[in-house]
Amino acid sequence: MKKSVMIVGVGGQGTLLASRLLGGVAMDAGYDVKVSEVHGMSQRGGSVVTYVKFGDEPVYSPVINEGEADVIISFELLEGARWLSYLKKGGKLLVNSQKMAPMPVITGTAVYPEGIEEKLAAAGADVTVIDALSLAEEAGSSKATNVVLMGLASKFMGFSEESWQKAIDTYVPAKFLDMNKKAFALGQKA
Questions:
Q1: 104 vs 88, 107, 110, 160, 167, CA distance in Å?
Q2: Beta bridge partners of 6
Q3: Is 167 strand, coil or helix?
Q4: Are 188 and 128 in contact (CB under 8 A)?
Q5: pTM
Q6: What are 174-185's pLDDT values in tens digits?
Q7: pLDDT (0 to 100) of residue 24
Q8: What is the DSSP code (8-state) at residue 47?
Q9: What is the Cα–Cα distance from 67 to 134, expressed in whole angstroms?
């Protein structure tokens, strides 16, 4: 068994912490794990992509090619559409409904596309869209959107609740633990 997961978003959304959580959970389950982070123009609000591959056989490269991702976790609506071609047939696309305008939209040279959710579903993807930002704010901070999405992902990944909680304890700073545990639980219930 091998799994390929892409975590995509915009700089500053916490994709790197999310990849550490998933990688930690997979390692705790005894899998060989490879993680790769592609930052792009992350400090300027550009795309950030993280690849997480794990399996019971050796994983030699974390890179995921088009049509290979079992799961894509998208922290922003347009990013979900941008990376859809990387999802394998029958794969799962988990998307935060939040819209963050890219630079061309901000400068007025482009318009944020409409109907993205419908287009994702029409493309044949198994799509789950949630308002992770609102759930994160309910947990105590918009910065916990990433952990809300990992809570949602936990329902589809097959790892134990104990492993997820252990990863949160390991990778989240102590002063933010309670808020992130609440965010994770809200994501699981979404």
A1: 29, 5, 5, 42, 37
A2: 51, 72
A3: helix
A4: no
A5: 0.92
A6: 999 999 999 999
A7: 96
A8: E
A9: 31
Single-letter code of the amino acid located at 100: M
pLDDT at residue 143, as a whole number: 93
d(CA 77, CA 8): 10
Q: Which two tokens stand for residue 138?
A: 């309910």
- Compute and round to an integer the Cα radius of gyration of the chain: 16
- Which residues, in sequence order, are CB contacts of 15 under 8 Å at separation 6+? 7, 8, 9, 37, 48, 49, 50, 75, 146
Please report the pLDDT score of residue 17 as a whole number: 92
State the alpha helices, DSSP H only, in the chain. Answer: 15-28, 77-82, 103-107, 116-122, 132-139, 145-157, 161-171, 177-189
Domains and CATH numbers, the chain: 2-189 (3.40.920.10)
Distances (CA, A) of 47 to 12, 99, 116, 179: 10, 13, 17, 26
Residues of the chain with pLDDT below 70 are: 12, 39-45
